[in-house]
Amino acid sequence: MRRRLARLVFSLPGTLVLMLALFVASIAARQTSAPAPASIPAPAQPTAPIPESVSACLACHEDEAMELAFSDGTAMSLFVDVAAFTRSVHAGQLTCTDCHAKYDDDHPMGTAFESRRAYTLNSYELCKRCHFDTYTRTLESVHYEFLKLGVESAPICTDCHGAHNIADPHEKRAMVSRSCAACHEEVNATYASSVHGHALVEDNNGDVPACADCHTHHQVQLPGTTRFRLNSPETCIRCHGDETLMAKYGISTTVAQTYLADFHGVTASLSKHLTDDQQRIVVTCNDCHGVHDIASPALKGAEAMKATVQQVCSSCHQDAAPTFPAAWLSHYPPSPRNAPLVWAVESMYRFFIPFAVIGLILNLGLHVYRMSAGR
Q: How far is the C-alpha of 140 from the C-alpha of 151, rounded, in Å?
């Protein structure tokens, strides 16, 4: 009996069973004797280390009472929030003297400024040292045109991006709330109540367009021009022609195709390549759907949408009857569900026209053959 047991233990299967038993026993002993491990807290959001040269500046500029007085009697706070600075995109990359190169231990020094705005405008070209391409694009914007006319309230880099607390400019919520809304308060309030703004502000949906998606970031053009109107369908098509994006929300991409295929869309496409004095005003997306106050057609309702279209049509077609917009097939191609009669006639012509053309060619061919054979 002992020999059999020894053979079983020292055989290969027996050894494996014995090792497995010892391993299970050790795990059970650990679980009963060792206390449950404490939950590991999530690591704090890392912040950039503060260089020694920056710390030297912050030794004074952490004082919230520090300010700089100007000739017009106004003052500007010189306080720098250390927490905001270390979270900025420039933290760890730039030091104070990269932007404030003319300052040393015995300052303020340099030119005295009349007002706080004059000081801000004087720093306009600081950013171009690193962001030269972006800076040159701002020179083509409507904001820079206002600056050239002496409108000091026109925004520059720091008005939109901040100074010591610059965040990621691609974050849409920050872009709308902090930048554009600072000057365009009424427009922002209207946008916030639209179908796009509600999705962005309330639902934090990054798929919907914000200000810069339609107006661009640095080459902002005057939106009241004919050229801007004629180019607006392309702006809408960037999203409404994206099949993957529209599939997420159950919106058909035929919205773009049907507009470009009808009279107004073709006219807009042909006119945008002409000179400004040759371009014609035609109906674009904004005329029927609005600009900053765009509402969902599904939520707005069919009757309300018809009334809006009727109003837009009557602006050019003064003698149009109230039923005039009913002749439009909307943004959906004819189908058995949408305009079935038009779909039936269209389907018939797709068969009839090739049949008639082939029959005509066959008839002419037989007639020519008969004439040649008769000779």
A: 16
Residues 207, 199: Cα–Cα separation, whole Å: 9
- Kindly report, residue by residue over 211-269, the tens digit of the pLDDT: 888 998 899 988 888 888 888 888 998 999 898 999 998 888 888 888 888 888 888 88
DSSP letters for 103-166: --SS-S-S---SSHHHHHHHTGGGGGGT-HHHHHHHTTSHHHHHHHTT-TTS--HHHHH-SSS-
DSSP 5-41: HHHHHHSHHHHHHHHHHHHHHHHHHHHHHSPPPPPPP
Rounded to 5 degrees, what are φ and ψ at 50?
-90, 120
Residue 319 neighbours by CB under 8 Å, 6+ apart: none
Q: What is the DSSP letter of 250?
A: T
Question: Which residue in this structure is represented by tokens 């030091």?
Answer: 95
- Which candidate, 242, 238, 260, 261, places its Cα nearest to that of 251? 242
pTM for the whole structure: 0.70
pLDDT > 50? residue 27: no
Find the mean pLDDT for residues 265-277: 75
Answer whether 190's CB lies under 8 Å from 231's CB: no
Enclosing H/E stretch for 173: helix 172-174
Strand partners, 159: none
Contact 274, 231 (CB under 8 A): no
Rg, C-alpha atoms of the chain: 35
Whole-number Å distance between alpha carbons of 293 and 296: 10
Contact (CB, 8 A) for 252 and 331? yes
Backbone φ, ψ for residue 76 (5° rounding) = -125, 130
